């Protein structure tokens, strides 16, 4: 499950001066076969903590009248200025905020969104959690986004979804603190919405390429303004695909119904019971077959004895 289709990105060059310019090498890329969910989340914690300077000047722009207003301003900025793009299968990129900004036109995935937003929330002193989620009863986590706990519940800042404070229904979730130790209650290796696939060797690098910066020389706006299309495409039209991350599609998507996850222990117990029952039936069938054979043999012997007795009587009755 993933957000489908490119969104229009607003002009952004007026914000370039607020970021240190990326060197183009400040990103961790890990290939397939090394994905571990726990390591990925630890790395996200590390990137948020160690690259706060990237969003220091930007964060002040989002301070609102209250926490909800502030969170909405953050969501609107990220959604309208940073394109979403799922990383290639088996390859994951965790970007510092300045690299996310540099890649805003080509697109970044949900873990980069989370790092970017988490950095801003940290500057503003707003406590948050990183929520990882499963969908459709799958046994692995597929998505990550920040939530801000409040008295009434929480505020969702998921910039993959196209509505503020909207949470796609999940089958299971777990909330991770942006710092400190944690335990994962589920299988590792996120895939589906996004694969958060950073391996242990990324954490062991003596110098993570997350701190490199270059002095900005000039600013270029790569986004050409377009006229917004106010018409809503019909899902029945060819080429239009529904996505649970689109607000107008949320009630039409049938793939996210909650269902009980596969329970291996319960499956093994039920399988064992079924096998034992099957063996019992076979034994019972075999015993019945053996008993039937004994009865048949007994009847044959009885019939033979009866025939012999009858013949003896006939022989005695015909003597002269």
Explain this structure:
The protein is α+β, with helices and mostly antiparallel strands and 320 residues long. The chain is built from 7 helices and 8 strands. It has helices at residues 37-50, 56-59, 67-81, 97-102, 110-123, 200-203, 264-317; strands at residues 21-22, 27-30, 92-95, 129-134, 143-150, 153-156, 172-176, 213-214. It has a 4-stranded antiparallel beta sheet with strand order 6-5-4-7, covered by helices on one side. A two-stranded antiparallel sheet has the order 1-8. The protein has a two-stranded antiparallel sheet with strand order 2-3. A hairpin with a 2-residue loop joins strand 5 and strand 6.
Main sheet strand line-up = 6-5-4-7
The overall average pLDDT, rounded, is 73
Q: What is the CATH topology of the largest domain?
A: C8orf32 fold
Question: Structural class per helix/strand content?
Answer: alpha+beta
Overall 3D geometry?
A: elongated
* The first-level CATH class name of the largest domain: Alpha Beta
Describe, in short, the structure shown:
The protein is of the alpha+beta class. Helix content is 35%, strand content 11%. The chain folds into two domains: 13-223 and 242-249, C8orf32 fold (Roll); 263-320.
